[in-house]
Design goal:
The chain is an all-alpha fold and 83 residues long. It is built from four helices and no strands. The chain is 70% helix and 0% strand. The model has no long low-confidence stretch (mean pLDDT 87). The radius of gyration is 23 Å and the shape is rod-shaped.
Length: 83
């Protein structure tokens, strides 16, 4: 595969991140990122997103908060309790 433009490179990015590209396309994506500062930065950020999402959603909710949320969503606010 020849040299990629930034536009064509961005079209292949999701498949690259998913491991769905063949060796030739994968090598072309990597070569372009190695020679293009903007695409290299974008790739680095793009590949970091799944780990950031995992960390952001790995939250432990205390049992009392779970119970209050369950009551709130079921329509039972409990007697004398604030939401």
């Amino acid at each position: 595969m020849g040299d990629l433009t930034c536009e064509r490179w961005s079209e292949l990015l999701a498949a690259y991140a998913d491991g769905a590209l063949g060796p030739g396309h994968r090598a072309a994506v990597e070569a372009h990122a190695a020679s293009c500062v903007a695409c290299h930065r974008f790739l680095k950020g793009y590949l970091a997103v799944p780990a950031l999402v995992r960390r952001a959603t790995d939250v432990s909710i205390p049992p009392e908060v779970r119970q209050r949320l369950a009551r709130l969503f079921s329509g039972d606010r409990g007697e004398g309790e604030d939401p």
